[in-house]
Automatic annotation (TrEMBL), chain A:
Subunit structure: Component of the 7-subunit TFIIH core complex composed of XPB/SSL2, XPD/RAD3, SSL1, TFB1, TFB2, TFB4 and TFB5, which is active in NER. The core complex associates with the 3-subunit CTD-kinase module TFIIK composed of CCL1, KIN28 and TFB3 to form the 10-subunit holoenzyme (holo-TFIIH) active in transcription.
UniProt-recorded name of the protein: General transcription and DNA repair factor IIH subunit TFB4
PANTHER family, alphabetized: GENERAL TRANSCRIPTION FACTOR IIH SUBUNIT 3, TRANSCRIPTION INITIATION FACTOR IIH TFIIH , POLYPEPTIDE 3-RELATED
GO cellular component, one term: transcription factor TFIIH holo complex
Compartment(s): Nucleus
Keywords: DNA damage, DNA repair, Metal-binding, Nucleus, Transcription, Transcription regulation, Zinc, Zinc-finger
Family: Belongs to the TFB4 family.
GO molecular function, one term: zinc ion binding
Keyword Secreted recorded: no
Taxonomic source organism: Pachysolen tannophilus NRRL Y-2460
Top-level division of the source organism's lineage: Eukaryota
TrEMBL record, chain B:
UniProt zinc finger (C4-type) residues: 332-349
Entry superkingdom: Eukaryota
Function: Component of the general transcription and DNA repair factor IIH (TFIIH) core complex, which is involved in general and transcription-coupled nucleotide excision repair (NER) of damaged DNA and, when complexed to TFIIK, in RNA transcription by RNA polymerase II. In NER, TFIIH acts by opening DNA around the lesion to allow the excision of the damaged oligonucleotide and its replacement by a new DNA fragment. In transcription, TFIIH has an essential role in transcription initiation.
PROSITE patterns in alphabetical order: VWFA, ZINC_FINGER_C2H2_1
Entry's Gene Ontology molecular function annotations: ubiquitin protein ligase activity; zinc ion binding
UniProt xrefs under Pfam families: C1_4 (PF07975), Ssl1 (PF04056)
Claim: Hydrolase is one of the keywords in the record: no
InterPro entries per the UniProt record, alphabetical: C1-like_sf, Ssl1-like, TFIIH_C1-like_dom, TFIIH_SSL1/p44, VWF_A, vWFA_dom_sf, Znf_C2H2_type, Znf_RING/FYVE/PHD
The protein's name in its UniProt record: General transcription and DNA repair factor IIH
Compartmental location: Nucleus
Alphabetical list of Gene3D superfamilies matching this protein: von Willebrand factor, type A domain, Zinc/RING finger domain, C3HC4 (zinc finger)
Amino acid sequence: MDEIADRVFQADDVSIAAGSSSTLQAFDESPSSLSLIIDINPLQWFRLKDQIDLKDLSRSICIYLNCHLSLNSSNKVNVLVANNFSDGEENGGSKILFPSIHTKTDEHGSSFGNSQGKNLVNPNMYRQFRFVDEIFLEELHSILQKEPTELNIKNFKNTLSGALSISLSYINKLNLSNDGLLKSRILIISVTDDDSLPYISTMNCIFAAQKMKVPIDVLKLDKKDGVNNSIFLQQATDATNGIFQKITHPKGLVQYLSTSFLIDSNLRSILILPTNFKIDFRSSCFLTKKIIDIGYVCSVCLCILSLIPKNHRCPVCDSKFDDKVIEKLLKKPVVGVSNTNGKKKRKINSVM
Amino acid sequence: MDESDDEYIGELSSPVKNSNHDSRPGISNRTRRKTGGGDSSQNRKLAAGNGGGYSWEDDYQRSWDIVKEDEAGSLETIVSGLVEARKKRYLKNVTPFQRGIIRTLILVLDFSAVMAEKDLRPNRASLTILYAIEFVNEYFDQNPISQLGIVIMRNGLATLVSEVSGNPNDHIEALKSMRRLEPQGDPTLQNVLEMARGLLMHVASHSTREVLIIFGALLTSDPGDVHKTIQSLVKEKIRVRIIGLTAQVAICKEICKKTNFGDESSYGIILNEAHFKELLMEAVTPVAITKSISQQTKGFTLVKMGFPSRVSENSPTFCSCHSKLVYGGYICPNCSSKICSLPAICPCCNMMLILSTHLARSYHHLFPLKLFNELPKSEQYDAYNCFGCQTEFPEAVPSGNSVSIGNVTTNGNKSKKELITSSRYRCPNCHNDFCIDCDVFIHEILHNCPGCESNNIKTNLIQAKTSDLHATHPENNNITTATG
Ligand SMILES: [Zn+2]
Ligand SMILES: [Zn+2]
Ligand SMILES: [Zn+2]
Ligand SMILES: [Zn+2]
Ligand SMILES: [Zn+2]
């Protein structure tokens, strides 16, 4: 019943606002949900250890989450981690931290789990904030505890796409239960380069987000001299109207989070977004995983290859390529020789 | 009560999301039983025009007649049936056929006198144009490097409205300008097919050749023998798909059958506006290339393509495609000339330039996600939450209450309700459980299994092939430079 009453109220709101100047005012009142994905790849955090560590990050994140929650009383958050390496049966990779599935989220906050998170958060904090922050810190702590001391890098696969998939399913469910009244967005705090990101599944996530009109924002933490290699994440932000920022001064992280990344998805059309316009649209080779700007594309399955397969068959769909076409592609450019201008040029050509 | 009738039907025709959908009290009053009808699937089949008889010979089917209560007066079985039907729809697409993804399609619109009829609102012609615009958008969204051309049939002639090109805006402009055109005269299948043949003649061998006809009339006025045209269509491997707005016409059926290797399913007759759109949108998905076709074709082409980067500029420079001053653009990776929009063929070095995201849209056709299996009912389950949306699953039923399908209490009280299904759908690869909402979302929109993607050890098809190459990952270098 509450829900119905709410909707009527909102409908009134819209009509009033439409009467004045624009409907934007009314939209401002509608709640939004934020999915935060934190990349906790230990190897990369080690690389950044002089500039920032996870403790600094989680401090800033708590402030950021509280900021988001304070904008509207029915705003929602959920937090995931990607790239953790805690081996064992309970899957490593990506995991959801908040809402926690371990601590039964009791609305009255009676069973806030064990003490770990409680000690870290000021007990006098506004209850809504404390509830989120405590569970977030607690879960993060328990994941870091399980982190192995030695890593088997051979099996490394960037699980950011998994975290994205989970948060998109989560958002899908939110949309179903809220009649699409809730706007959602995703923020990825990334430290890992894209080379290890599975290309197809990342692209699938991008298209799903595009269809659902969910902007994906990316905050890339990097060293000052680091080569920016987040090609796919850049493409993700571009396709979904999100914000991409590379941050090399992580000390001011709170500032970045609370200015650039608090922009609501329906304000994006009227603001100039703090994102970069130069975007690398290169792609990844299906076979070698190399990032390429010129490639060969199979006309049947559209897979991208950086080299012509030796057996002249598509490695993905097994179609036989036309030998003549292959021959043409393998041909190197030849310096043109005109017949009228006799011997000299021919000589040069033969020398070459 | 009467008021809510519409709402209820609307809900049923929209995809039903939850198998445990609580049937609301009062529904039985609104549901009318149809006596003596065949079973629902048969009815639908007939109505779609695919069955043995003609749809107009059958009794008129109301959409609410399909819904029937079971013996216990519950809708639960029907609802779960609808869920199953929805699942079956994507099951169809899982067969890993090769798909001809680079397509060339000629869209043919009937603009003869019958199109002025008002059985579709506001009239047939305007609705067709409206839907055709949506079709063009969707077509280029799903097939970004394909081509399209538009032809109309009017006054017994075939007229080219929009040249074959890959630019959706040209086609949409052409369609919009047709709104002023009055439908007139007779339609002509032969003329239009011959024109389509001519347009498709020069299409490169790696592209599919397709014709989509929206046919409102029940007649065709042809200058010669249409059967000869059909034969040459078959010879040139042009596939024809027809959407009839009125009733089945024998010649249309024959055209579809002959050009689609004996398959009649490419001929559809609309039931209503929504079905019209559905039939039109079916043509958006690329046609599967069957084994027999791929064996007939000796060589497929490999196309060299460039993936340019976008640049921003403070002052405008000339683009090489229109010689206009523009801010920013894309830089050809081969010759470094500036192009304003993609996809395009570089005017300088003749290389095809596209965004990699254009290609990636079709990859889910190539690597279809395995279907999730519904878990059998059991007294105990491993997972308590859906892996995707983290919603709690309904609790397992203790063995004391034996469960019989259809014996469901409808008072919405969870503890009293016995469950028909386990409501858990398990991915065969990663063994994570999902709810029905997530299952449908994952297979229809996302095309990724969150469980498989989240696991950093298991690898999927392509990655397994190239896993050896991962040994030389930059990660290795990083750790050495960081420590040393
Ligand atoms: Zn291929
Ligand atoms: Zn230009
Ligand atoms: Zn060029
Ligand atoms: Zn779910
Ligand atoms: Zn899976």
